[in-house]
Amino acid sequence: MRRWKYLLIVSLTAMLLAVVLLTRFRESTAKAAPTMVPSPDTLIAAPGRVEAVSEEIRVSSELSGRLKSVSVEEGDRVRKNDVLAQIENEDYVARVAGAEALLAQRQAELVRLVNGARTQERRAAEAARQAAQAVLDNSQREAERRRNLADRNMISRDEAERYDRAYRVAQAEYERASQEFSLVDAAARDDERQRAEAAIASARAQLAEARAYLEKTYIRAPIDGVILRKFRHAGESVSTQFDSPIVTLADDSSLRVRIDVDESDVARLRVGQPAYVMAEAYGSQKFTGHIFRVGRILGKKNIRTDEPSERVDTKILETLVQLDPNQPLPLGLRVDSYIVVGNPR
Fold it and tell me: Which of 81, 121, 345, 73 has the alpha carbon at shortest distance from 226?
């Protein structure tokens, strides 16, 4: 019995001694080890999607009609104002021709008004006036002679009055011929000139309108960029009554990443913070950039991951990262985004 007690005491003493030694070893190790200072930088991780600086532009027609041609394919690079497609436009070409003819007619009318009658018309009017003058002079002499004869009772008073009436008719004919000559020879009046100029202005406006409609039958690129999608082909119809884009294009000379930052991290976001993105297709390669715009309102998630445990009821803040130049990423690529932020204190 005493031996058993002795063994128990020895065992307890050894265990106590082991605990004391272990404690002292840990304390000495802790004092000897350098203090671990947490990194001053932390990361905000969020899903993102690559997009062009212009985003996607849906190019449609301003007129309804049937497509005569679509001259681009997906992946083609285009310059601003390049023709992407054309609508059948024979009727618009005819309208332009009609408007041009009307303008030419109005301009000719103004020229005729300013220049007056032709030389032949002036000569004819002058000859008619001179003839009327000769008839008038002859009628005047005959009327005076008959009046003198009637005063001397050599002819009847009725015959003298008949010659007097012929003289008055000759006066009226001379006046008419004189007025016709003045009309042919006179310059254009201000009101006539203004009316003719107004007609020309109206014709020019109609021509400009016809040409504008004709130009709209050519669907042109609004910017320099690359064709992303082609939705319509030659022979298909487009309408202004519903959304019917012909192609979509974007300016991919500069790339951005639109990321969904969780609402719990928005307090640490600042414009100008460095960032980088990674994509599964590119392995461990990092594509660097910086934040250049932070949204002002929270909203629903735009980008979904493939994680089955992902929550879809959380709010996010849209943030745009401007990628550094010459980093070839395809538009629409889904990436993992990382924003380097200072450790809050």
Answer: 73
